[in-house]
Amino acid sequence: FIFKRSAEIQRILNQLGTPQDTHELRQQLQQKQQYTNQLAKETDKYIKEFGSLPATSEQRQKKIQKDRLVGEFTTALTNFQRLQRQAAEKEKDFVARVRASSRISGGAPEDSYKEGTLVSWDSQPQAQVQDEEITEDDLRLIEERESSIRQLEVGITSFTADFR
C-alpha cells in the first residue's frame, strides 16, 4: 500500500506548478502524505511483531520472508521520504517565484516585465496599483504555501525520527 500511496503522491507532485495546481490538490497531497506516514508506522509495528513470533520448524522460511518484507518496506520508505522532500522543494520554489513576481517595481522599466507582458513606462503608476492588488493575493498564497512547507518539514522530521 505504501508503494501505491507513493505513486499517488508522485502523480500529485507532477501536477504542482501546472494549471491543475489548486488548493484542493495540495490538501489532497497533505492528506495522502499523512496517511502514508501513519501506514508506514503501522507496517513497521507489524513487521516487528512478525519478527518476534515464536520460532517454529520453519524458522529459515520465516527469516527469508521477514528479510524480504523488510527490504520491500525499506525501499517503500526511502521512496516516500524522497517524495516528501520533493514536495517541500516544490512548495519552496513556488513561494520564491511568487515573491519574485509580486515585487512592486522601483520605477526601472526593466523591472516592469511580469508574466510575459512588458508594461510601458507611461503606464507605470497603473501597473503599480495592479501589482499592489496582486501582491495581497500573492501574500495570502505565500502564507498558505509556507504553512504547507512547515507541515511537510514537520512530517519529514517526524518520519525520519520514527524510522531511525
From TrEMBL:
<dbReference type="InterPro" id="IPR045242">
    <property type="entry name" value="Syntaxin"/>
</dbReference>
<keyword id="KW-0597">Phosphoprotein</keyword>
<dbReference type="GO" id="GO:0005484">
    <property type="term" value="F:SNAP receptor activity"/>
</dbReference>
<feature type="domain" description="Syntaxin N-terminal">
    <location>
        <begin position="2"/>
        <end position="92"/>
    </location>
</feature>
<protein>
    <recommendedName>
        <fullName>Syntaxin N-terminal domain-containing protein</fullName>
    </recommendedName>
</protein>
<keyword id="KW-1133">Transmembrane helix</keyword>
<dbReference type="GO" id="GO:0048278">
    <property type="term" value="P:vesicle docking"/>
</dbReference>
<dbReference type="Pfam" id="PF14523">
    <property type="entry name" value="Syntaxin_2"/>
</dbReference>
<dbReference type="InterPro" id="IPR006011">
    <property type="entry name" value="Syntaxin_N"/>
</dbReference>
<keyword id="KW-0812">Transmembrane</keyword>
<dbReference type="InterPro" id="IPR010989">
    <property type="entry name" value="SNARE"/>
</dbReference>
<dbReference type="GO" id="GO:0006906">
    <property type="term" value="P:vesicle fusion"/>
</dbReference>
<dbReference type="GO" id="GO:0000149">
    <property type="term" value="F:SNARE binding"/>
</dbReference>
<dbReference type="GO" id="GO:0006886">
    <property type="term" value="P:intracellular protein transport"/>
</dbReference>
<keyword id="KW-0472">Membrane</keyword>
<dbReference type="GO" id="GO:0008021">
    <property type="term" value="C:synaptic vesicle"/>
</dbReference>
<dbReference type="GO" id="GO:0031201">
    <property type="term" value="C:SNARE complex"/>
</dbReference>
